[in-house]
Design brief:
Blueprint: E1 2-4, H1 8-14, H2 19-40, E2 44-51, H3 59-82, E3 85-91, H4 99-111, E4 118-126, H5 128-141, H6 151-156, E5 168-171, E6 190-193, H7 203-214, H8 227-244
Parallel strand pairs: 1-2, 1-5, 2-4, 3-4, 5-6
Helix pairs in contact: 1-2, 2-3, 2-7, 3-4
Length: 255
């Protein structure tokens, strides 16, 4: 599952606050989503924190986002470790990222590396196209013969080859686009666009999104010869899955 956390700035503006306050409020939504993902038994959760295009925002806002990320690691890193959550960052490698933040990122990745309950990947200075360019560069450096290049091989040269394709993408704030996010892994993702601004997005919203996802029939381009049987089978699968989704306590999205 992946989330494009959009609407922080608009949330702050509506409150008469600076945009940085919206990003700060969005941290609580992140924590709520992590808790809900753990309760649901999800294994992978990817959050779009900061894109390669976000550097074009006003420098005070960018600096605030950098500080908030460092502070979030300091305040919540130990809790994530105890919960069995592995934290990874996707993207990065940019001289504009403050050295202190880079150190904290490396530290949280190192101390949580052995956790297996949930992998939370924070897409930070990430762009879907740049990820593909980086993968192609690695292939060229490895001198792979052109005829040996396959979809599987290209995937092995991405930053995290073990990361599965996205099954469900949620974007908040009413926008209807994927904004250059995880393009390689988004080929058959189910897309869900909600009007809720990210700071108002709760664990309960995440649970409801999973319920809707479970009601969708994913055919991956195939067609069943016995469509009725397929629909019945899909319904029985969804019913069984819905029984496993437990309500989570409501807790209290960067754009």
């Amino acid at each position: 599952m992946a989330c494009i956390m959009d609407g922080n700035g608009r949330w702050a503006t509506r409150q008469g606050l600076p945009r940085s306050a919206g990003h700060a409020a969005g941290v609580a939504a992140v924590l709520g989503c992590v808790d809900a993902a753990l309760d649901l038994g999800l294994r992978w959760l990817t959050l779009f924190v900061f894109s390669t295009e976000n550097w074009s925002r006003p420098s005070p806002e960018v600096e605030a986002i950098m500080r908030l990320n460092a502070e979030a690691i300091r305040r919540y890193g130990e809790s994530l470790l105890r919960q069995g959550t592995r934290v990874r960052y996707m993207g990065m490698d940019d001289d504009r990222i403050p050295p202190e933040l880079l150190r904290k990122i490396k530290d949280i990745e190192r101390v949580t590396a052995a956790n297996t309950r949930l992998t939370v990947t924070l897409a930070f200075n990430h762009g879907g196209r740049s990820e593909l360019v980086d993968a192609v560069r690695r292939i060229v450096r490895a001198q792979v013969p052109p005829d040996d290049i396959t979809e599987q091989l290209l995937g092995e040269f991405t930053q995290y080859p073990d990361m599965p394709d996205v099954d469900l993408l949620i974007r908040t704030s009413g926008e209807h686009r994927i904004s250059n996010f995880m393009l390689w892994r988004m080929a058959y993702a189910e897309l869900m666009f909600v009007d809720t601004l990210w700071p108002n997005f709760t664990g309960e919203h995440l649970v409801e999104a999973v319920r809707h996802y479970q009601q969708r029939c994913r055919r991956y381009g195939a067609v069943s010869d016995l469509l009725g049987e397929q629909q019945d089978h899909g319904k029985s699968q969804r019913d069984a899955q819905e029984e496993r989704v437990e309500p989570v306590q409501q807790t209290t999205e960067a754009g």
